Structures are given as C-alpha cells and as structure tokens.
Amino acid sequence: MSFWASLLQQGFLQNALAASLLVSLACGVVGSFVVLKRIAFLAGGIAHGVLAGMGLAWWFGWPPLAGAVGAALAFATLLWWLTLDVRRDVEVLIAALWSVGMAAGLVLIAKAPGQNPDLMSYLFGNVLMVGREQLGWMLALDAAILMTVAGLYPTLVATAFDEEFARLRGLPVEAARLLILVLVALTVVLLIQVAGLILVIALLTLPAALARQSRSVAAMMLQASAWAALATVAGLWAAYRLDWPAGPTMVLAIGALYLLKRIIKRPPRAS
Amino acid sequence: MTSVIDCEHVTVERDGRVVLEDISVTLEAGDFVALIGPNGAGKSTLLAAILGLIPLSSGTIRLFGEAPERGRLRVGYVPQQGSFRTDFPVRVAEMVAMGAMSPGWRGARKSALAERHVTAALERCGIPHLATRAVGALSGGERQRALIARALAVEPELLILDEPTASIDPSGQEALFDLLGALNREMSVLVVSHDLGLTTRYAKSVWCLNRTLCRHDALELDGDTLARLYGFPLRAIDHRPDRERRP
Question: Model pTM?
Fold first, then answer.
C-alpha cells in the first residue's frame, strides 16, 4: 500500500503527520532565534540535559513529558543565569550540563525500580507512537510558543539584533534572553517526541539556516517552518517506504536539503 | 542649569588595571565635544561609563542630572562599526524604528508618533531611499548614516558616537561631520575621533584622554598638548579660514 493510501486509513500515520507539521512551526520560529543569536550549542545542552528530567520522572512514576518540561525549563533558567556574566567560561559550563545531565538520566533510567523504559525512543524519537493525548499536549505547547513570539515579536527581534542598543533604550534585554531560552526549552520538548533528544539540534538549526537570506526575521521564520515541514514530511514518507526509523530519516532529509543548498549557492561572505 | 554630562572624580579599574583615573569633566548643553586619545587610552571605557554600562570603582556620573541608567534614555548612541551584525535579516527602516521604542515590553507597539520619528530621522540623514534595503547590503557610509538615523529616532538631547569615521572614505567623513555640525544646532554631541583635522574644524571642545583627561577649547589645542597626549610630536592644523594660522 502506498504512503498516501495508508495515510487515509491509518490513525498512527495521521498522528505522525500532524506531529511533524506541529513541530515544524516551532522549529522555524524558535530555530530562527537559535541561528541568529548563535546559541545552537546552548540549545544542544538543554536538549541533552532533559534526559535527567525524564529519568527522574521514570524513577518516581511521573509522566515523562512532565519530567521533560520541568528539566528543560530548569536547564534553560540555569544556563541563562550562568551566562549572565560574560566573563564565565560559558562553553565549558554548557558542555558540563550537557554531559552530566545526560549521564544522570542514563543512571536513573538504568537503576529505576521496575521495568526500564524504551530508552531508544527518548534518544531518537518515535513519531509513529505519538498518540491522541500526546498530540493535544503538542498542540498546546506549539500554540503557547507561537502566541508568545507573535505578541512580543518587536522586543525579541530588537534585543536579538543589538543587545547593547536595546539595553540603552530600556528594553528588557535579560528577560528577553531568558524568554528565548524558555522557548528553546519548550521546542526541545516538542521535538523530542519526533526526533529524539540527540537529533533535536538538527531540526532546531538547519531549517532556519536554510532560510538565512530572508528580508525580515518574520519571513525567515515562515520560510524555515516550510523547510522543516518539507523535511519532516519527506522523511516520514521515506521512512514508511523504506522501513527506516522515522526520526533519523527526517534528520537525513533536512541534512540533505542543507547540503544541497550549500553546494548550489555559496553563502555570501561577510563584508 | 544641570549639565548634560557631569563626571566627578571617576575612576574605573578593569582586571586590576586603572583604565580611567580621577576624571572630572562636564559637558554643557549645546557643546560639540571631540574625545581624542591614543589606542587603549580608555575612550570606549569612558563612553561605557557615561552610559552606565560598566560599574565605576569610585566617583559619580550624572547624565542630565540623573543616574546614567535613567539619563541614557535621552541619549542617541551610535556604536562602533565593528559591533554591527551584517548577517541579520532586518531592513533599514525596521532598524531605525528600534531607536523609537520606549522602555519595557510594551514599548515596541507601533505608534503613529514613532513612525513619524523614523521618517524624520531617515530624511535628516539623507537616506529615505534606503528604507527598505537590508542592513547587510549597505556600504560603510550608508551603514553609518543608518546607525545615526536609529540614534536620532530616539529624539535625543545628546548624541554619542564611537569612532563614526572608521570605515568611511575622506569625502564621506567630511559629509558626516557636516551632518553632525548641523545636528549640533539642536542637540549636544560627543564624538570619539582619531581625525584631528576634522576634530579641530567642527568640535567646540576637545577632551584629551590618556587614562587621565584634560579638557580644552578646540581653538587652544596646540602641538605641545598633542605631543603630551600621544607621546610624540604632532601638529594641530587649524583649517578655519577665518582664523589666523598659529606659528
């Protein structure tokens, strides 16, 4: 049966498609900030640290999503606070949180009482297992992210463009930076359902990087969302046809698009 | 009347090194001050201190009689070119509008008044035709004018510029100082400059900084003063046709 015919009949495929489109929106919008503010490494740190929260949730029998949201927000706030002082060795701090958070999560999951969870789906995602209830959660998170950015767009763009000038104008520079990290954290949680926490960083950076030559940040967000949607849906289709794991196939799709663009059109040199 | 800038015994240390030492100086309304000094003299540090961006080790600074964190809202600031992001997808008009934002989260709402300020600032700098241009596609001179337009959208009473002529050709530099001279009729100007020729022609006062600061009227700036400041002989050239040449 073809992918499109199955899509009409199979609920799990419909859910997977809906989940892919939902994350694409958040990827494009929040990913644009990640690329423009050059915080991909920070976003990676949050993503990997989230495993500690999922491990903790598993240990105590809480819903894994709650653990993920809690850990993502905690790590975002911690990293925001640690990077307030630019003289700190930020890169090493991020690397420490990245690896120690992940290690804590792995130990918690290994030693948790009872049956072990499917670690592979945490790490690499399993979009084909997304259920109705999960889809509802994702919709709510997505809506919260999009509404926040839409409502505070000029302030977020002005502070991202020139922090010093924004500070002189009395704009809430540090609060805006924290808010962007919180949005990154929520997007990471969304993406974990689809691509898993190790592959999150590809979908958070490459679609926005593909949309680099836009005329405005809003146009970049729209275009990046479109690239993300194209890659996730194409990845889902290819994964179904070839019987490949969905998350990695999506990442291969966005990676191929990015490589193609780099080959076709060399990025303009900074003057 | 309160001074625009009032520094009293300002000392700033960074990493245990004294960068600014016991600086006391005022800038009165309507003045056009050139801040000169060799590299590493602390020019950018002094600007940062005046704008309340770095802590003082001792002394006080008042901007319009207020703490710098409040007084700086009345300042239009033009940063050094090097700090400019050319890879950010934003157009000139949008960037200039960032100058018209008022403090806080809601300050970014579009208002008719803010839009008028943006249009006026673009016209004042002679770049209305660049409004829809991407900032990354501007030449050095155009970029400088766009940054000044953003500072003017603040509706400032004091304009502070950090080495505005750094990446502009000589005729562009002259045009830029012409613009600053015209703006000086409405606001005070403080400009960091390496160009002593332009400085003596346009500025009313000169602040010579090399860790400590000496204030001069632009007219009395002579070779001895400059030699003391830079550590080697230099001659000030007075370009004003209506002034007698110094021997």
Answer: 0.89
pLDDT tens column, B20-66: 999 999 999 999 999 988 888 889 999 999 999 999 999 999 999 99
**Residue B58: what residue type?**
S
Q: Which domains does chain A have, with CATH numbers?
A: 3-264 (1.10.3470.10)
DSSP string, A197-219: TTTHHHHHHHHHHHTTT-SSHHH
Interface of A with B (CB under 8 A): 36, 152-155, 157-158, 160-162, 164-172, 175, 212-217, 219-220, 270-271
C-alpha to C-alpha distances, A269 to A39, A49, B81, B87, B125, nearest whole angstrom: 21, 35, 17, 9, 28
Classify residue B170 by burial, with Cβ atoms within 10 Å: 0-12, 13-18, 19+: exposed
Q: Set out the domains of chain B in order of their start, with CATH numbers.
A: 5-85+156-230 (3.40.50.300)
Helix axes A246-264, A173-195, angle to 10 degrees: 120
Give the pLDDT confidence of A43-82 residue by residue, as tens digits: 999 999 999 999 999 888 888 888 999 999 999 999 899 8
Query: What ipTM is given for this predicted complex?
Result: 0.87
Chain B interface, best mutation among A157, A159, A169, by max B CB count within 10 A: A169
The gap from C-alpha A15 to its chain's centroid, in whole angstroms, comes to 19
* Residue B67 touches chain A, beta carbons under 8 Å: no
Q: Which two tokens stand for residue B87?
A: 């890879």
Verify whether the Cβ–Cβ distance A170 to B104 is below 8 Å.
yes
The CA distance from A177 to A160, in Å, is 8
Side-chain half-sphere exposure of A118, counting CA atoms within 13 A:
8
